[in-house]
Amino acid sequence: MExxxxxxxxxxxxxxxTFMYPILGALRMARxxxxxxLYRRLEGGGGEQYxxxxxxxxxxxxxxxxxxxxxxxxxxxxxxxxxxxxPPGSATGSADERMPWD
Length: 102
Hints:
Elements: E1 8-14, E2 23-30, E3 35-44, E4 47-57, H1 63-69, E5 75-76
Parallel strand pairs: 3-5
Antiparallel strand pairs: 1-2, 2-3, 3-4
Keywords: Membrane, Transmembrane, Transmembrane helix
């Protein structure tokens, strides 16, 4: 038995071409259900917003899955009204892996 367990994990995701800029998104995991949620960063209107675009249960997404769901540049705030969720059966994995709002 492990004496310490991960209860929360948060990681910012960057482009591979620069050091810590621009932030393209974030990956978050909370212990209560073990879901890892991938967020896409949008800018605009003097602020930023993170929209969920993928969810994995019991495992971390692969670099390929994250690359498919995150753009190579930061999106504009004009897309805020659009759903950024990937369609069912895409890189988000199996049917039992649901988006956080399900």
